[in-house]
Amino acid sequence: MKLAETVTFGGSGLDRAAHTRGTQAGVPESGDSAIVLWRGRVLIEKLEDAILLRTNVLNGALLEGRWIFLGYDEGTKVFACDISHWTPADNQVPDPNVFFDPTEQHHPAFGEDAVFCELRGHMGALTARDAELAATAKSLFHWHNSHQFCSKCGQNSQVKMSGWQRSCESCKANHFPRT
User: 53 FRET partner, CA 20 to 30 A, in 78, 84, 138, 158?
Assistant: First the structure.
């Protein structure tokens, strides 16, 4: 057994397809799937076991979302979409000042059993592939949220390479997440 096969976030065999980032293949299109995040929470379907919910990238709830290309899962392109602009009908939002907020938020576009929840509360129930997808998406969106400005000149930077790079139009510097 290889060491990567014993690590929760490694060994799932996901094809991250770095060569397609920044190309048309790294853009969501009909037939592709997406995992959905909202304010750092992942969309989980809670049936018998919690599973990471995947939806079609054409789902109307994703129209105004931010996208990241995660890779190919058994030949299907998988993206992450952040819809943090959405506000729940009951206005119940997570408390950012606590380590673990157990509240769950329901979005009507994803079905009765789907809720946004803290990833750490369900990580043990996810498959290695779903854990890798969710953790990668969560960390990349967090990086984008905290690195909106160029560290070289201080100007706004733009998302590039299907979500895996930020570039500064002012000084031409490129910035990459720590992976």
Answer: 158
Stated pTM of the model: 0.90
User: Kind of pairing, strands 33-38 and 76-82?
Assistant: parallel
Q: Over its length of 179 residues, how does the chain's per-residue pLDDT go in tens digits?
A: 455 555 666 668 889 999 999 999 999 999 999 999 999 999 999 888 889 999 999 999 999 999 999 999 999 999 999 999 999 987 778 777 888 888 899 999 999 999 999 998 888 888 889 999 999 999 999 999 999 999 999 999 999 999 999 999 999 999 999 87
Q: For residue 57, give the amino acid letter.
A: V
CA atoms within 13 A on the CB side of 13: 4
- Phi/psi region, residue 8 (left: phi>0; alpha: psi -120 to 50; beta: rest), is alpha
CA distances from residue 15 to 113, 115, 121, 140, 142 in whole angstroms, order as listed:
29, 27, 26, 17, 22
CA atoms of 108 and 5, how far apart (whole Å): 37
The C-alpha angle with vertex 88 and arms to 84 and 90, in degrees rounded to 5, equals: 150
Dist CA 33 CA 78 (whole Å): 5
